[in-house]
Amino acid sequence: MTIHNLGDQNSVLNQFISEIRDVQIQKDPMRFRRNIERIGEVLGYEFSKELLYSSKNIETPLGNKSMYLSQDQVVICSILRAGLPLHQGLLNYFDAAENAFISAYRKHENDENDFEVVVDYFAAPSLEGKVLVLTDPMLATGRTLENVLKGLKDHGTPKQIHIVSVIGSQQGIDFVQSVFPAQTHLWIAAVDPELNARGYIIPGIGDAGDLAYGEK
Ligand code: URA
Fold first, then answer.
1. ipTM, 2 dp
2. Measured from the CB, is residue 104 less than 6 Å from ligand 1?
3. Where are the chain's structural domains?
4. Domain 2-50+75-213 adopts which CATH fold?
5. With a 6 A CB cut-off, is 138 part of the ligand 1 pocket?
6. Is residue 204 lining ligand 1, measured as CB closer than 6 Å?
7. Which end of the chain is more exposed for a tag (fewer CB within 10 A), N or C?
8. How does pLDDT run across 78-125, given as a tens digit for each residue?
């Protein structure tokens, strides 16, 4: 897997990440959602450089211009509900993208640390020959992404897989790297060192779904 940690570079992306981390700014859910969307836009622009481009003649009112455009069909696949603002950010740039949605939750067995990821809603188009973009705003353990990948197996073989994530734990990234095909790209805005006992990224941001849409 190729890991593109864009938060390692100096850019306006760090402004958006610091705002979603900040407990004071987090009090405004609209700003939180918009910042996640903006992060999706930046990461989407970056991975667009991996698509296949061919030239097309564009007629302007005053002449012609050959432009490079991508013919790749992009499918954006998000996990409800925390993935929705990131999904919207990507859709802002990929106008013709198809969409897939999955709902997954953690089913705890005996204690907080012992859980399986249950996928109970799945709606996806064919992925055959397409560019699959999986969004997971908080790449904590990586087990949700593993289950999503398994669930998508019957939908055809994509030509490229891109994972788009806002913040990941090093442990989650290592796990995803071990279960995804080697050609997968991970586009991520920040990598944090730890996971706590409940599987939350430390220092992270807290619960991304609650911050975007309110506590359950
Ligand atoms: N999901 C979240 O919303 N936050 C985390 O830190 C981990 C998983």
1. 0.96
2. no
3. 2-50+75-213
4. Rossmann fold (3.40.50)
5. yes
6. yes
7. C
8. 998 999 999 999 999 999 999 999 987 777 776 666 677 777 888 999
